[in-house]
C-alpha cells in the first residue's frame, strides 16, 4: 500500500487551518493563557512515554481493561443505540485538499440467464477522511511534535510515502473499542477545568480511568467551541483513554503551537482522537433519558499502515 506524501502532509495542514478558525475567540476569556514554555513542560512532565513499555503502540488504550468493558456493558438499560457519526455526503469533486467529500464510483451490471435478466450494483468508495468533513479516528502516527510521535519514536521512521505508518497505525485497533462513554453537552464553550468539574457536580458523574470523553460544541447548530488547552493536565489526571468532539477538538490557542490538543493527546498521552462526530442525536437522547454515560463502541477498519479511519461509532443506553 502506498501513500501520496503531499496529501498525507496536506491533511494535517487543513486540520490546522480549520482548528485555528474554530478556536479563534476562545483564548483569554478567563485569563487562562497557556504559554509555549508551559505547554512544552506539560508535553514532557505529563507524558505517557514508556508507561506501558518502550515498544508500546496502544497508548492510553491500555487503560481499557476487561473490567472496564464489563463496567461499560452494565450501563446498558433500555438497549437504545445512537450513531455518533456525521451524515456522509457523497459527491464527485475535483477539490485537492483534505476536505474533499467522499466519492462513490459505481456501475450497474446485468447478468443474463435462460429465464431472467438479473443485475447488481457494484461500487467503490473513495474517502479522504482527515480534515473537517468526515467523522474519523486519528491513529497515533497521524501527527508529530518536534519530530516525535507517541512513545518517543521518530516521525521519519514511522511515517513515509512508501510505507504509510509502519508503527502506531489504525491496524492496532482491529479488535475494536468498548468502554464507558461520557458526553459533555456544552455548546458554544471553550471548555476548561472548572466547566467540567461543575458539570461533574451537577450530574454526579466522575470522569475516570479508561473513559472515552466526548464534547458537543453545537457545531451543527452554528455554535463554536472545543477543549481549551488549559485542560491538558486534566486529561492526564483522569487517565482518559479516548477523546472526541463534533469538531477537531481545538478550543483555544497556544502561541507557537498550531494544534495543541492534537499534539498533546496523540503524541504525549497516546490518546486516540475522534474528530467531527455527529453528536446532535446523542445529545437529544441523553437529555431525554437524563443519562450522560453509556456503553461506547467503535470498530475502525484495520487498514494496513493507515493513519486513521472513517467510522460510525455507537452509543448504547
Task: Draw up the topology in text.
Elements: H1 5-22, H2 36-45, H3 66-73, E1 81-83, E2 103-112, E3 117-126, E4 136-138, H4 155-158, E5 159-160, E6 164-165, E7 177-185, E8 190-191, H5 193-203, E9 212-216, E10 226-227, H6 232-238, E11 242-245, H7 260-269, E12 272-275, H8 280-289, E13 293-298, E14 308-310, E15 314-316
Helix pairs in contact: 2-7
3D architecture notes:
Helix content is 25%, strand content 21%. With 317 residues, the chain is of the alpha/beta class. Helix 7 links the parallel strand 11 and strand 12. The longest helix is centred in the N-terminal third of the chain and has 18 residues, at 5-22. The two termini are 39 Å apart. Residues 1-31 have low confidence and may be disordered.
The CATH class is identified as Alpha Beta
**How many strand elements?**
15
Low-confidence stretches: 1-31
The helix/strand class is alpha/beta
Number of helices: 8
Question: What's the short story on this structure?
Answer:
By secondary structure, the chain is α/β, with parallel strands linked by helices. It is 25% helix and 21% strand.
Amino acid at each position: 500500500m502506498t501513500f501520496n506524501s503531499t496529501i498525507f502532509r496536506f491533511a494535517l495542514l487543513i486540520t490546522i487551518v480549520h482548528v485555528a478558525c474554530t478556536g479563534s475567540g476562545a483564548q483569554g476569556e478567563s485569563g487562562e493563557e497557556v504559554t509555549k514554555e508551559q505547554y512544552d513542560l506539560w508535553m514532557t512532565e505529563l507524558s505517557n512515554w514508556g508507561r506501558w513499555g518502550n515498544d508500546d503502540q496502544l497508548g492510553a488504550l491500555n487503560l481499557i481493561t476487561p473490567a472496564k468493558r464489563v463496567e461499560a456493558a452494565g450501563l446498558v438499560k433500555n438497549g437504545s443505540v445512537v450513531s455518533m457519526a456525521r451524515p456522509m455526503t457523497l459527491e464527485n469533486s475535483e477539490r485537492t485538499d483534505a476536505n474533499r467529500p467522499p466519492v462513490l464510483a459505481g456501475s450497474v451490471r446485468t447478468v443474463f440467464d435462460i429465464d431472467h435478466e438479473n443485475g447488481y450494483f457494484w461500487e467503490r468508495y473513495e474517502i479522504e477522511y482527515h480534515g473537517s468533513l468526515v467523522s474519523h479516528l486519528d491513529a497515533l502516527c497521524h501527527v508529530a511534535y518536534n519530530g516525535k510521535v507517541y512513545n518517543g519514536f521518530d516521525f521519519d521512521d514511522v511515517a513515509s510515502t512508501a510505507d504509510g505508518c509502519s508503527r502506531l497505525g489504525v491496524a492496532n485497533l482491529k479488535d475494536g473499542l468498548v468502554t464507558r462513554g461520557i458526553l459533555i453537552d456544552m455548546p458554544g464553550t471553550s471548555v476548561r477545568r472548572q466547566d467540567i468539574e461543575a458539570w461533574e457536580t451537577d450530574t454526579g458523574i466522575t470522569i475516570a480511568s479508561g473513559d472515552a470523553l466526548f464534547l458537543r460544541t453545537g457545531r451543527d447548530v452554528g455554535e463554536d467551541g472545543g477543549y481549551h488547552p488549559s485542560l491538558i493536565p486534566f486529561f492526564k489526571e483522569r487517565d482518559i483513554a479516548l477523546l472526541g468532539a463534533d469538531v477537531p477538538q481545538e478550543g483555544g490557542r497556544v502561541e507557537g503551537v498550531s494544534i495543541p490538543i492534537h499534539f498533546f493527546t496523540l503524541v504525549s498521552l497516546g490518546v486516540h482522537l475522534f474528530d467531527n462526530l455527529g453528536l446532535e442525536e446523542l445529545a437529544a437522547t441523553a437529555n431525554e433519558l437524563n443519562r450522560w454515560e453509556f456503553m461506547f463502541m467503535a470498530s475502525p477498519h484495520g487498514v494496513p499502515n493507515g493513519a486513521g479511519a472513517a467510522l460510525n461509532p455507537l452509543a448504547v443506553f
